[in-house]
Specification:
It is a single chain. The two termini are 45 Å apart. It is built from 9 helices and 10 strands. It has 2 domains: 135 residues, START domain (Alpha-D-Glucose-1,6-Bisphosphate, Chain A, domain 4, 2-Layer Sandwich), CATH 3.30.530; 170 residues, no CATH class. It is an alpha+beta fold.
Length: 319
């Protein structure tokens, strides 16, 4: 279990502070882009750019503590979390101690996501403190912030490095009796071209068309939106990109082309591996890479038309 703690003082009556932290006010002291919605004992919250439902239990001790325990109803890389809020009267102040405990599954995701999730959840607790202070002092709510984000420069560097690694791997493929090594190299390069080309294509094509972006974000694949693939999609971490809607040259046709670029890059760039396989691979390797490349194109056309970039492009163009 991972844990984040935050402690601060509020110079307000404990009754008012406790009321703000009760379940009925939960939505008012969380960032709106989390979209927290509570219906009976089910909390829907937007994590990693997808709506995930949690069954919740809340324990209240009047003017002392609020403990919210959440367990995901559907597949989630963050299956459980507990948010404890303790209140103590200290002279004219109320001392607030907030503690968020959560887990990330599976372990490989914990290694990849931990820094981003820890930073994001720390920001959420900071937001809660500021939201409570502002509410009690009749001030506007704090400024919203993007969740699970990385800068455009860092995100682009990650993807360019990945693609460079894909081309470098292909350099070492040559006719050899060590067939296992060639299989490993070919599959690795294929996955790299398929994975790292997608979001970078959005960025490059968007910039060419005059579309501005604010940041990349780390999120779950849109496969999560399809019930049949949800269990697979909830562990598939992808990069997305936020369009800066305050500037840039955004038209429906330009946005549609930008969306389509991601889907087509994921279908077409792995052909680089296929071409190299024809040059240096065996017949079995050619059959393998040809099969997964064809399957990827068919699956992407079907899936993306329902819940992915092609679907977004069609909807954008029709607006």
């Amino acid at each position: 279990m991972l844990k984040i703690r935050r402690e601060y003082l509020l110079k307000h009556p404990i009754d008012d502070v406790f009321k703000l932290y009760t379940l009925n006010m939960f939505q008012n002291i969380m960032p709106r882009n989390l979209k927290p919605r509570i219906v009976e004992s089910v909390l829907t919250i937007r994590l990693l750019n997808q709506d995930i439902r949690y069954f919740i239990e809340v324990d209240l001790k009047e003017k002392e503590s609020i403990v919210l325990r959440a367990r995901s109803i559907e597949c989630s890389p963050i299956p459980i979390f507990t948010l404890k809020t303790e209140l103590n009267q200290v002279d004219d102040y109320v001392k607030i101690l907030e503690e968020l405990e959560f887990s990330i599954r599976p372990r490989i995701l914990s290694i990849l996501l931990r820094p981003i999730v820890m930073n994001t959840f720390s920001s959420i607790l900071e937001f809660r403190e500021e939201a409570v202070r502002n509410h009690l002092e009749n001030k506007p709510p704090p400024r919203e912030f993007n969740l699970f984000t990385i800068s455009l420069s860092v995100g682009s560097l990650i993807q360019l490095t990945g693609l460079a690694a894909g081309f470098l791997i292909l350099w070492f493929i040559y006719p050899t009796d060590l067939l296992f090594i060639n299989y490993l190299l070919l599959l690795s390069s294929w996955i790299i071209f398929w994975y790292f080309s997608h979001c970078l294509a959005h960025y490059i094509v968007g910039r060419i068309l005059g579309i501005a972006f604010s940041s990349y974000f780390v999120g779950l694949s849109n496969l999560y939106r399809l019930d049949k693939f949800r269990r697979f999609g909830c562990y598939m971490i992808t990069l997305g990109i936020y369009v800066d809607r305050s500037t840039g040259k955004r038209t429906r046709s330009r946005m549609a082309v930008m969306y389509l670029s991601g889907a087509f890059s994921s279908m077409l760039l792995p052909l680089v591996t296929l071409v190299r396989t024809f040059e240096a691979g065996t017949l079995d390797q050619i059959m393998l890479i040809s099969t997964i490349t064809t399957a990827n194109i068919i699956f992407t056309l079907l899936f993306s038309s329902r819940a992915g970039d092609i679907n977004k492009a069609l909807k954008t163009h029709k607006k």
